[in-house]
Amino acid sequence: MSKGIRLSTRLPVKPEVVYRAWLSSRGHTAMTGGKAKATARKGARFTAWGSYIKGKNLTLKRPSRIVQSWRGSSFRRSDPDSRLEIRIASSGKNASKITLIHTKLPRGAEGRLRKGWTAHYLKPMKKYFGKLARKSARR
Questions:
Q1: Which of 24, 68, 109, 110 is the most buried (most CB within 10 A)?
Q2: From CA 110, how far away is CA 103, in angstroms rounded?
Q3: What are the b/e assignments for 109-139, b being 16+ CB within 10 Å?
Q4: Which of 16, 8, 11, 31 is nearest to 96 (CA)?
Q5: In what order do the strands lie in the sheet with 65-72?
Q6: Distance of alpha carbon 138 from alpha carbon 22, whole angstroms
Q7: Where are the domains of the chain?
Q8: Is 50 helix (H, G, I), strand (E, B) or coil?
Q9: Distance between the two ends of the chain, CA-based, in angstroms?
Q10: Average pLDDT of every residue of the chain
Q11: CA–CA distance from 50 to each of 47, 59, 70, 74, 121 (Å)?
């Protein structure tokens, strides 16, 4: 197993907005562009990017922390589920810092997953929440 991945970015919305989006089917789909099924219940199962990603909500601390088991369809059957921790902190007025900590990764998957997190989560989230903040500011 690798040491894991730790990535952070700032988003122009409050932590509660990010938290709600991550844990709702509609919000997760909108912020990433990939179809998701999610709910804000401990123990609930979720899917993202169709069914490419599957997992379960392990810990929910609104609005600052989400811990999930996480499994990509590219994992071998013998690979255990990985662990994803999403930390969401206030970063000034109407802004958040999100930190993704992805551990217990299959051997050799770190580079591919790091690229995937950046391309399929962090970049689309910055774009989505940026549009949301601009729209909100016009009201």
A1: 68
A2: 9
A3: bbeebbebbeebbbebbbebbeebbeeeeee
A4: 11
A5: 5-11, 96-103, 82-90, 65-72, 53-61, 45-48
A6: 24
A7: 5-138
A8: coil
A9: 48
A10: 95
A11: 7, 23, 14, 14, 14
Domain 5-138 has CATH 3.30.420.40: no
- pLDDT tens, position by position, 17-36: 999 999 999 999 999 999 99
Amino acid letter, 127: K
The proportion of the chain whose per-residue pLDDT surpasses 90, expressed as a percent, equals 90
pTM of the model: 0.94
Rounded CA separation 82/53 (Å): 11
Phi (first) and psi of residue 133, to 5 degrees: -65, -40
